[in-house]
Records
---
Amino acid sequence: MPFGLVSAWKKRRRSKSHDQIDPWTYKPVEYWQLEDQNPSTKRHHGSSVFTLREMEEATCAFTEDNFLGKGGFGRVYRGILRSGEVVAIKKMELPTCKEAEGEREFRVEVDILSRLSHPNLVSLIGYCADGKRRFLVYEFMHNGNLQDNLNGIREAKMDWPSRLKVALGAARGLAYLHSSSAVGIPIVHRDFKSTNILLSANFEAKISDFGLAKLMPEGQEMYATTRVLGTFGYFDPEYTSTGKLTLQSDVYAFGVVLLELLTGRRAVDLNQGPTDQNLVLQVRHILNDRKKLHKVIDPEMSRSLYTMESIAMFANLASRCVRIESSERPSMADCVTELQLIFCTNSKGLGMAMHTFRMV
Ligand SMILES: Nc1ncnc2c1ncn2[C@@H]1O[C@H](COP(=O)(O)OP(=O)(O)OP(=O)(O)O)[C@@H](O)[C@H]1O
Ligand SMILES: [Mg+2]
């Protein structure tokens, strides 16, 4: 599919695949059935199994007051568990024809996320599977998703040091997934985007939504598929044109998020004219042009909190992440190193101590 066409669309597109037969990701169905209704039962690396009743109690029967947001899988509600813990509960709500896809995503999410532990990945607290109903229970992230903080409902716009901190946190999360240290096998997230970066009370970034993730066993540098999964605006052009998924597909999506952080614009903005809808196509040609770079900087950012040097370094990194040839993109480990340097450059340029922004 040509890149221009892909990027003109906003919503995720899914179709049939060979994924069902992949033994790495999908467990036998018996594994997911609830034979033990004890709410305190711990399974599978610490994920709790909840009953439907507990889900209803936690959210006051899914009242609108607890509604947090809606995505392709269903609605998300704030909830309080019997233990007093505040959580986010994602309720699967799909038309019958999409239930099988939803079930697949549910299983991958539980299977992968309950094996992972990293400060920049959202924690899965547990799940509920009751008949055909499915719920995922996550740690609650007080500041919602990154996109809403950049150009959505939230009033206070993030300053440059906070954006650098988010970029670095997200880079660390992805680098962890791509390394073998997570589950012994590199993992491609495949749906990395600004709504899947959640922010804690002190604006630490945590990556969420692993339902489309793919394990890449040793020696398998790419995975060929007939269906292209992910979200429009973030698709690696090489993946969309060849169907070959690599770790570098996440690097492309990461580059798009860097551009959102820099410009405060959306990855795809259907309110713009046909040639200006795609952020990468809109700004790519000026990212390495210091004279024109000021045109793309988010005007909502406080001028006193960024140096042009750090902006130029950041724009250069973003431009390399979104290169069409995946082999020319940096690795996520390189991105972490560069972003640390960019953060230091900005702090030094402004004469600020690193700890001002609670960096780790
Ligand atoms: N753990 C959480 N804590 C707080 N809010 C959350 C949490 N998880 C999700 N949300 C909120 O719920 C919204 C919907 O999330 P969801 O992941 O279902 O959709 P999405 O990421 O926006 O879109 P898509 O389904 O296309 O990936 C998010 O944008 C976020 O604001
Ligand atoms: Mg999401």
---
Amino acid sequence: MVTLLDTTNAPGEQPAAKGDGKAKARHPEKAHRPDQPVQRKPAWIRVKAPTSPVYRETQDIVKENKLHTVCEEAGCPNIGECWSKKHATFMIMGDTCTRACAFCNVKTGMPGALDADEPRKVAEATAKLGLSHVVITSVDRDDLADGGAAHFAQVIQAIRQAAPGTTIEVLTPDFLRKEGALEVVVAAKPDVFNHNLETVPSKYLKVRPGARYFHSIRLLQRVKELDRTMFTKSGIMVGLGEERNEVLQLMDDLRTAEVDFLTIGQYLQPTRKHHPVMGFVPPEEFKAYETIAYAKGFLMVSSSPLTRSSHHAGDDFARMKGNRLQQLGY
Ligand code: SF4
């Protein structure tokens, strides 16, 4: 899965609520690990506390339909802004992930059975929120024979029926060792297929130990082989100790796989038990990454400290479509 996290604590504070007891309950595999230092956040990472009535409305629709969102589960710093515009990213297949990535705040453990009614609930919430573009992500479900691919397809089909005008972006797990799973999701025809690399290959063992870098690259390449018209997208976090040259190499790897859209955001440490922030990348370096990525041929790039996979996903999708038409000479 896909997640950047933040506890939006004040600068200099240690993340409080999730620091110990709660973190242990949510991440039993991390409980024995030594506490990691928590760095003070720089001035450019500031978010407003959510207060707007539309934010509450979004919250009510999510609750009424008993849905999970990555916005809440991952403690996304943009929740105030996004939910005030009714932009929520639904996280399907439960709230418990079978992987244990060092950066992610989604609860880990053995998940329960799939909710057969979830496609309908997600579709109804999408229609109720009046979304022009919806992002659907999930926990990793290594326990399921198809990794949850058929469930993804059912969610896509249900949204097409309930909200035919809504474009659909899926942000999927890597379906590692799940033969044929990717094909099932692509056949359901989402508008955007997103799968995050999360970090550079040298950091995989520590940051994303259950995943394989080249498998993820190949997954994205395969989407294009299956459907050339489908937009593909991937994202990384910086501030995990990666070298600049490694980021540039990763861009080349993604372009080799013909990925259209790259997102780059700052990693924020959810609790003391998670991977420490190795550095805060200043806004001008994000801008430089953006310029280089466009030069390397990406159709669309979003690179800023608070960029997240699903942040402004609808507006960015419209721009990406426009960029493709321009490229084709329309
Ligand atoms: S950026 Fe994505 S995950 Fe974060 S609040 Fe917005 S929609 Fe949710």
